[in-house]
Amino acid sequence: MVWGQSGAVMALYHSGALADIVIILGILGVFYGITQVGREWAGVLRPTVVIDLSFRALPRYTLFSLVRGLAAYCISFLFTIAYGYWAAKDRLAERLLVPILDILQSIPVLGFMPGVVLALVSVFPNSNTGLELAAVFMIFTGQAWNMTFSFYNSLKSVPEYLQEAGTIYHFNWWQRLTQIEMPYSAIGLIWNSMMSMAGGWFFLMVTEAFQLGNRDFRLPGIGSYMSVAVEKGNVPAMIAAVVAMVLMIVALDQLVWRPTVVWAQKFRIEDTSQEESMDSWFLDLLHHSHILRWIGAANSSVGHAFGSLISRLVRHVPRNIPDRSPVASAPARHGVQNRPSFSVVFARVLFFLLAAGLAFALAQVVRLLISVRIDEWLRLLRSDLLTLARVTTAIALGTLWALPVGLRIGLSPKLSRIMQPIVQVAASFPAPMLFPAVILLLALLRVNIGFGSVVLMLLGTQWYILFNVIAGAQAIPSDLKEAAASYRITGRQRFWTLYLPAIFPYLVTGWVTATGGAWNASIVAEIVTFRGQTLRAQGIGSVISEAAFGAKFAELAAAILIMSLTVVLINRFVWRRLYAVASTQYNLSK
After folding, report:
1. What is the pLDDT of residues 248-267, one digit of tens each?
2. Angle between helices 58-89 and 222-232 (to 10 degrees)
3. Could you read off the pLDDT of 482-501 as tens digits, one per residue?
4. Which among 122, 142, 138 is positioned nearest to 130, based on CA atoms?
5. Taking Cα atoms as reference points, which of 147, 163, 164, 159 lies closest to residue 269?
6. Please, are residues 535 and 527 in contact by the beta-carbon 8 Å criterion?
7. Where is the chain membrane-spanning (predicted)?
8. pTM beyond 0.85, yes or no
9. Whole-angstrom Cα distance, residue 325 to residue 358?
10. DSSP letters along 57-72, please?
11. What distance in Å separates the CA atoms of residue 453 and residue 394, rounded to the nearest whole number?
């Protein structure tokens, strides 16, 4: 009987019926989720939201949090492509856009929260829409910068022979983006997308349950569920929230990220085949679907028409666009060289509008900073240096274990298949949910919160390094590994001559994003509340948290300014130089 049932399932699998059933159920589930979320968004804004700590409320809360995270990721992806492409291709804009990205990455979620929440709630005073949009935006601020840095760095390191191929075939900017640059960036962008989703989950408890002065803003979700459970010391509810979060992350990994990682392997740049192919049971299932084939056939004509439209739109874009690729030095057609295209004019107008907006925002910040006294500036500076020491320590500790472990996972497709779900769960799990257990452990070990905050930072930032190392290891061409084996280069020599140079650009990206993540994590690592007791470590993170929750806008602006300046200076004098080394000395395409 069991054999017969198994045989029937296999028959459905190979016929494609099982895949079609899964797709139909998925479409119905998405439709149901949209209707439930739509009701919540359109609901009346309530002064206080009571979070139900019963187990039956968890599935609905998990659905709400999942939708917020996916909505924020879609916005982050579009932002990444537009912002990263603009910064990589326009030399003038690059001088402004990259420092802005450094600053935005250094601003913690609580730095965006007061203005965004108050503005959106005032725009939608009678519904939850403003508060929901604010939550999505704050999750976006935990996702976008890491992805954008990865895409920007990939665009800057596209091999010259690929750029020359685009020039030979007379690719316009759209063809170059979709057929050369996006495929080349795919592996790094996908792994950093997974890490960005993890970064968004990290602050889930803050984005769904927070206070501004005497106002309490809460949204139903797994983050607010955990926040209330921690406040009340409800251990069963905390365990239930952890289980629900793990199940959601595993489902995302198996249904989204693992198939995407396997699909992206076709963009590996190498002359030999991969030693062991990666696989995904869900991707294999979708390959048998008749519905997807019908949709693909129906969309082929639409895609052809869309491609023709894009070709007509970009036909007049000149080949001497202001970037650093060989296409910039290609001779322009007669009559086009001295005539700026619409895209160039639009980019310049957008650039000056951005500069004007920044100038206006800076003027508003200066008005707040005037009231800050000198002794307060000195106190903030001391706090900033203490947090800097903790961030540096956390990055060093994270690198010590993430570098060898990431290499081991990335170099072995078999091990990657086993470890990726585990790593994804560990990376995506909101570390603040574990803070109560970690605090209890630190108390048993008699470790004060000053040193303990380094451990709390490490819980959320070490994964940036690990994911980038894994992505870099998976992108190492097999022919180089085979050459190292042929010359019998093993052990430490192989690490220093092949692995480290090959992954160094990815490692630098991991360091940059991990550093930004550590600064952001300081706002929840340097001040922790559990069962009514507040543990506070002196640092810029705890200052920002207290200023944000107390609606002390002048102190908040001053603290964020000092933190941002510190991050920008480190990026300019440390990370930018390492990026230059990575693109010149350790670029495998040169």
Report:
1. 888 888 888 888 888 888 88
2. 120
3. 787 777 777 788 888 888 88
4. 122
5. 159
6. yes
7. 12-34, 70-88, 100-121, 184-204, 235-257, 349-370, 390-411, 423-445, 451-476, 496-514, 556-575
8. no
9. 29
10. GHHHHHHHHHHHHHHH
11. 9
